[in-house]
Amino acid sequence: MTGVLSLPDRSTPGAWRVDPGLALSAALLILAGLVMVASASVSFAASKFGSPLHFFWRQSAALAVGVGCGALVFVIDLRFLRRIATVILFAGIAALSAVLIPGLGLEANGAVRWLDLGVVTFHPGEAMKLVFVVYVAAHLANHGERIGRYGRHTLVPTAMYALVSALLLAEPDFGTVVVLGATLLGMLFVAGVPLRTFVVWTVLFAGGVAVLALSESYRIRRLLVFLNPFDSPYGDGFQLVQALIAVGRGEWFGAGLGGSVQKLFYLPAAHTDFLFAVVGEELGFMGMAAVIALFSVLIFRAFVIGGRALECGQQFNGHLAYGLALSLAFQAWINIGVNLGALPTKGLALPFMSYGGNNLVASCVALGLLVRIDRETRMAEGR
After folding, report:
1. What are the residue ranges of helices labelled H in 144-173?
2. Alpha-carbon separation of residue 345 from 124, 205, 221, 236, 301 (angstroms)
3. CA–CA dist 310, 263 (Å, integer)
4. CB 356 within 8 A of CB 113
5. Do residues 313 and 178 lie in contact, with contact meaning Cβ atoms separated by under 8 Å?
6. Of 30, 34, 213, 359, which has the highest C-beta tally within 10 A?
7. pTM beyond 0.90, yes or no
């Protein structure tokens, strides 16, 4: 396995040190997520499956898989990952294409986003959030300083983004398209692409999002409901109204853990996309602020790791860390914004916390990569 795995050497400075801010914030988010998934789903799980902790145990199993996958990527040589970046991108594209093949893709709530692998279902869109970042990081590292001088070097990753977006929109999965596009723009900005090129891509992205948002009747309804959900409190605005009631009921310190009323069959997707609203109801403003603070610490430390890697000349590692930080940040920002009524309703999970095995595993893999990048940077710095 030479060139694929790289195990830490105990005698090497920094080999076994972990960024405390990154590790602690991620651990607390994961533990808080398990507790809130159990609390938010207890009534629904008891009613549908006869087991109040059904979703808690499934999320715990997904966490075990995620920790294992995170440990695996930690020991993978990042130079090898850089070499196979294009290969895994096309593997991800193949998986997205397979979802659209009749008989292979699983439909739920009007969308076909999952592959049935027997004992589990696989969500290629969640994997693509990681795979695409790896690919873009490798592309930026391979072109080095030329990225900052010639705008043409941004054409290939944007073309790949267009291809991936077309497949995602066919499912449809508009939220992932937005996250990937915003992450790509952020990575190009960090790489120092010419300002004119960055502005052009930003305008095209914003225009494309606007056109897509207005191209489907259900997206238009979501926008109208977002502007005033109380115009249709029992129709299209029901979910957002219930989320706002939950947040408002929590006030400063919440109704207490387990004290949510909205999770009792009022708020749809209480343990998945709208878990943050239950956090607001049970733990209040202070609980929501704590979650946001933990995400802020995690994202900040990921940015610091990326910056240090670039300073050490580890271009791929640095761009990868920045990309992972941006992806997690955009997912958290959109989910929290939706729960608070600050953004139109969109089906994106809250990383590390929302119920959903695919998202939790992907989040753990991102964490494993960040820890690996931090380790390599510390070794390069000799600390």
Report:
1. 146-149, 155-170
2. 22, 20, 10, 10, 29
3. 45
4. no
5. no
6. 359
7. yes
